[in-house]
Write a structure and sequence with these properties.
The chain is of the alpha/beta class. It is built from 6 helices and 14 strands. It has one domain: Rossmann fold (3-Layer(aba) Sandwich), CATH 3.40.50.2020. Strands 1, 4, 5, 8, 9, 10, 11 and 12 form an 8-stranded mixed beta sheet that branches. A two-stranded antiparallel sheet has the order 2-3. A two-stranded antiparallel sheet has the order 6-7. The protein is globular, with a radius of gyration of 18 Å.
């Protein structure tokens, strides 16, 4: 049984550049530009990566400058960046721009709706990942609606080992998804989110949210 000491870091609780990028992501008149939409996902990923870097372990490393030896600090944690396809790709790139030596993992997790009604199951059909045993896992997905996709993706990753630390990063989450993650992920998890919206509609879409992040980034699916 998990002992819940989970930290939830909500960027909407203080003003920063994230506020500006969130405005543009949500604005339907700006969303018509897919490049700008993807770029803002990258930017928020970069900012979150910087903030997560403050929670990592560091070690002393001696380097040789042109003039003399110098003691510097380097990340001691072995970081694995994992992304839920496909909307997570530009968000992932923001993290990778800062954690440029990180290992990378990709998992598909999508809704398969029942023939009648709005009920659905979360299905995973693809996982490419290094070992995550004893490493710091950063699992990113722009939208956390119910939290079920994140739970399924995390448990799929456990087939590659047990991480020492877990960071979940999202642009927008529902209150329901935050509660779900608190109950289903380990207590050594930290959740980073650009905003937490209060409502899910009948189709389990976040309201006000921003729409379908995958479609806005890459075009509509057939």
């Amino acid at each position: 049984m998990w002992i819940f000491t989970m930290d939830i870091i909500n960027f909407a609780e203080s003003d920063s550049l994230v506020s500006k990028y969130m405005l543009e992501l949500r604005d339907s008149s700006i969303q018509t530009d897919p490049l700008r939409f993807r770029t803002n996902l990258v930017r928020i990923g970069e900012i979150m990566a910087y903030e997560i870097s403050k929670r990592l372990s560091y070690k002393d490393v001696e380097v040789q400058t042109p003039l003399a030896p110098c003691m510097c600090r380097d990340i001691a944690d072995r970081v694995v960046l994992a992304t839920i396809l496909r909307a997570g790709l530009p968000f992932h790139q923001g993290f990778l721009s800062y954690f440029d030596r990180a290992e990378n993992a990709f998992v598909s997790a999508f809704r398969r709706y029942h023939e009648k009604g709005d009920a659905f199951d979360i299905v995973t059909e693809y996982l490419a990942s290094p070992s995550i045993e004893g490493k710091t896992l950063v699992l990113v997905d722009p939208m956390l609606a119910t939290g079920a996709s994140m739970e399924v993706a995390y448990h799929a990753m456990l087939g590659k080992g047990t991480p020492a630390k877990v960071h979940i990063a999202s642009v927008i989450a529902s209150r329901q998804s935050i509660d779900h993650i608190r109950q289903t992920l380990p207590g050594n998890t930290t959740v980073w989110v650009g905003a937490i919206d209060a409502e899910l509609n009948a189709h389990s879409y976040i309201v006000p949210g921003l729409g379908d992040a995958g479609d806005l980034a890459y075009g509509e699916k057939d």
